[in-house]
Amino acid sequence: xxxxxxxxxAGVSLGTVSNVLNSPDLxxxxxxxxxxxxxxxxxxxxxxxxxxxxxxxxxxxxxVLLDIANPFFTEMVRGAEHVLRExxxxxxxxxxxxxxxxxxxxxRALEEHRVDGLLITPVDPELDGVAxxxxxxxxxxxxxxxxxxxxxxxxxxxxxxGAELAAEHLFELGHSVIAFVNGPGTIRQCVDRREGxxxxxxxxxxLRASRLLEIDVAALTVEQGERAAERLLALAPRPTxxxxxxxxxxxxxxxxxxxxxxxxxxxxxxxxxxxxxxxxMLSPSLTSVRQPKYELGAAAAExxxxxxxxxxxxxxxVRFEPELVVRASSxxxxxxxxxATFRG
Amino acid sequence: xxxxxxxxxAGVSLGTVSNVLNSPDLxxxxxxxxxxxxxxxxxxxxxxxxxxxxxxxxxxxxxVLLDIANPFFTEMVRGAEHVLRExxxxxxxxxxxxxxxxxxxxxRALEEHRVDGLLITPVDPELDGVAxxxxxxxxxxxxxxxxxxxxxxxxxxxxxxGAELAAEHLFELGHSVIAFVNGPGTIRQCVDRREGxxxxxxxxxxLRASRLLEIDVAALTVEQGERAAERLLALAPRPTxxxxxxxxxxxxxxxxxxxxxxxxxxxxxxxxxxxxxxxxMLSPSLTSVRQPKYELGAAAAExxxxxxxxxxxxxxxVRFEPELVVRASSxxxxxxxxxATFRG
DNA sequence: GCCGGTCGATGAACCGTTCCAATGCGAGCT
DNA sequence: AGCTCGCATTGGAACGGTTCATCGACCGGC
Lengths: 344, 344
Description:
The structure is a homodimer.
Chain A: H1 3-10, H2 14-22, H3 29-42, H4 48-53, E1 60-65, H5 71-85, E2 90-95, H6 100-112, E3 117-120, H7 128-135, E4 140-143, E5 153-157, H8 159-172, E6 177-182, H9 188-205, E7 211-216, H10 222-233, E8 241-244, H11 247-259, E9 269-271, E10 288-290, H12 293-309, E11 317-320, E12 323-325
Parallel strand pairs in A: 1-2, 1-3, 3-4, 4-5, 5-11, 6-7, 6-8, 8-9
Antiparallel strand pairs in A: 10-12
The structure holds a DNA duplex.
């Protein structure tokens, strides 16, 4: 069913049908009626490819994520989708699964599809793959990465600030020795969060003796958290509070401590990071740092729309503030600290 | 950068460039070299729209989900993506958010984009919106819905069987009175799971006195689970085992029982459904019914590929078996049943 | 009766690629 | 030399819409 079939049925030229579709006010009401009837009768569906070929936009946005099954990313996608569907955009969603080669393949495919813009969580922190796309003039916005230094639009969260909030919270509760169970330095987020925790510690030290004991683990998993709990119990001085680089680690620590007979929050206060869905469902419910995921995606989409519509465009790196959600797992320090509770 | 620019630079006709791209063996090695060099020099990227217009496929699959932020769906998408990316397909992902109107809008957009096929979790169980697409001849496969009765391909899980497994497991552990905390009858899954639980109960009754106490709640949430726990404790005869229509309910029940001083699994055995990530992380770790989500998506994608490539195609409704994952929350019944443990 | 202007409709060019019939050319055969 | 054959390459039509210059009809004014 083409525009030509519609024209024939309505007894007009194909140009007129096109006008009915694109600028209806140019067409006389009677003719317009007849054409619309013919469209309904034929079940005509406009062909985006032809539209696009003649110089129009593709009404398509490419989204390349590290992992499509990760709720953090999908919540961002949801935010982006809600913004973009208002403008009749459709998302082409690709999961690079953290493979640079696969990412490159997808970039290529999206370029061939002539997407109007791209939302990317890049595999390579140096943005090698992305540079190519930008050089080709495809509007691009980074997700969950600061693109400022590369002159790109981006929407990201201040990870240092999040860890700072967590540490600050624990110091303010009266804890003076805090353990920070952190992931490997190869992960940017871990590096940033360490920086934030240290910053808070430096500030706390001005008020009273304060220490941050850093415990690095190999991965951000529950199992690693359980192992970290064992190491925690052997520490001297023994921390009365623990913060973790993410909620899975925190859950592991919680299990490890509970198994060893250490009560949370009575003996040790615990704070996670990410505020995943189940954080609020644990017993005790977990204090955690929430990232504005939906807003992140929505903001990135807005930036992209701006970049698409206005060619001369000032690149902006939007940075969001994380939020500390205080729940039951973090209680004030008992005075004096009940270090005796630990079984070395 | 078009194929014409490449042709000019290489000093050949545009037909030759097309041949280099599509059937390289038709072109003399020397010429091929020159053309490839020219392609590299110009940075030429093939335009899918033009390709598609000329009669090719769009290499695009539309995926319409109820909720893109729901891990159940995204895990399916991951399975589908892994299959489809091997064939150089890109996914157009749309979240209907359970709105029929929005779903319809997306269907329309995907049709205009001339997707080669569709993967759908339909909003309307009667498939009103989908019928239109099928009539237009767009290959369509249903996800997580049985399409057999509508003559459609589909990949779904046998929900009745899952609940049957759960109930069977509890009866086999020696429990004779089981409570089933189920969601509203407007949700297909809840209806099917009820059916399965009843089936298992009928069978258990042949061996010895067995009862299924059905407790219906308004929604599949943690909060509703907690409320259900209160109702559970007031039941007579008192169940020694509880199965739930999903893991959130189970978590709520767990919290409710624990708060009332009832121990799981010592006093009451507990089984969930879905096996969400945190099910294994709870204390006690939750016995649950796992659905082969990834396989579901992958199978749907395979079916779709078949339907796309072979025009005369026998529609198939693939049905997966769920799997019971036994963990710590379900223990054998103590004999005689320690109903005294309950505080009415 | 002629002119200018407006409104509505027309049709051809164009977008970038694919596909196919046609062409050119050299080798091999009679 | 004339012919056929095969290979490499070419040129142009086609895909389905959009855009725009153009055209025709009609009306009012002089």
